[in-house]
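Before relying on records like the one below, remember that each one covers exactly one chain. Contacts with other chains, cofactors or solvent are not represented anywhere in the record.
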Amino acid sequence: VMLAGCGNAASNTGTAPAPESAQTQSGVSSSDNTADQSAKTEGSEAAKTTVEEKAPVEVSDVVLPKSEGGNPIIQLKDEQGRWIYGGDPAVYVDGDTAYLYTGHDMSTDVEVSEAAYHIPEYFCYSSTDLLNWKPEGVVMHMKDVSWAKDHISAWASQVIKHDDKYYLYFCSWDKTGGGKQSIGVAVSDSPTGPFVDIGEPLVMGVLTKPQTSAWNDIDPTVWVETDEEGVEHRYLAWGNALFYICELNPDMVSVTDQNGDGKITCGVSLGDADIQSSLKGLLSYTEAPWLYRRSDENGQYYGDYYLFYASGWRESMAYSTTTDLINGTWENSNVFMLPSATCNTNHEAIFDFKGKTYMMYHDGAQPGGNGYRRSACLQELIFNEDGSISMMEESASGLGGTISTIWHKGEVVCHAPFDNSVADADYPYLDIAVGMGLSDQEKDSQWVIVQGKADETDETLVSIQSENKTGLYLTVTEENEVVLAQDIDASEDTAIAQTFRSVTALDGTEGACSFRSMKDEKMYLTIAADGVLTLSDGSDAAAATFTVE
């Protein structure tokens, strides 16, 4: 709806600067010049029309409709007013409730190049509609894991239910296994915890081979199903740079001795080992594996198995398929999402909920976010008829948000087109051009208008975020230029630079509006002569007038 709510003017009113066309060469304003002209041409209808066109426009603050919900799906602050971050999302659906599990990212490093993961615990959130998420609190602290080398390394996890118990598979640095990363498991009677570690690693990092680093054994994913012959299989997979997979015993806390030699070994096939390691058929596999299989309306699984995973660096999202998780080969490998605009890693969770399939992933889109302060995002995942997945982009609107289009003189306002880079040196994005005619891609002209970041109580304030570059906002620079940029520091200054006051159109166009900068309240968003979005004092009122749909 075009500018729904624009008629709800706030109490602040003012007079817009007279348009340049209404000023004389001597600088006399149109209001001063009116009496002179009227005296000379009294009774002239043409003169009266000229006077009316030159009259200054009185502007009022207006309330624009704002997007609610969207991504990231968790946007909370702690008791000290600090943003809460959490990455490596995992989802388990139990009945009509979806449970989201994340680590608690608490890195305080200002420079990303110097940052390290600081994750002391696992959080849980629950939802019955995927739009509203209830915080369920901490489900496990790393300080309660006896074999953990430290208390700040709650790396990626996944939860699953089996025989009325809930199992949290996780990874952390292992003081009992040469300090390498190892796979652990904790058990609970409830999906919201508390989860209690079994007291030792499920798979020690020193056991697996081959090895290329101290963190090969991370990111566990688990899948349980009963085959056509009625035999239950409990698969566990994991790995960074290398991919490992095995089966679990019915107790869910020990690896099955597949070859019956009385010990758990690792190799390239089940003929000589219980844990397989192979990258054959996978596409630039990096980490974050997630096992999945489609199901019909009756909950019966069918078709190929999918392995979703992070590919390359910076991490894209990819998938491969197989007909048999243990004895099959991976094929049909494809990338379906490019790296995030705000985060170097990604980690997906694929799940079914009330008849649809969804993907949870993470980015660094919250204020102050980055690859070490991540946030969970959610989109519907669509399979093509042949089971493939088309390319997806990040989405700021997600499931519940609203996408807007901003028009100026019949043309859309868009950002310059770009694919998120795979080079760390190109980040963060702080100077993406915005204007008219910069892109012919529809998503580059889609915006998500949210409550102004500088003041959550003033409804006339807005911040304007790119739909397909989540976390990048229209931002006023120190030089009073306007660009698309990430909020990398969550500071008050950045919030102000990314906030605008919506007012009635400076040129008086009904149903349109103008945007006053909160960084300099004498300046307005304006389309310059070259089509680029900038700031001006509003003298050219038409150039500072926009329509929002």
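Residues 1-11, 18-54 have pLDDT under 50 and may be disordered.
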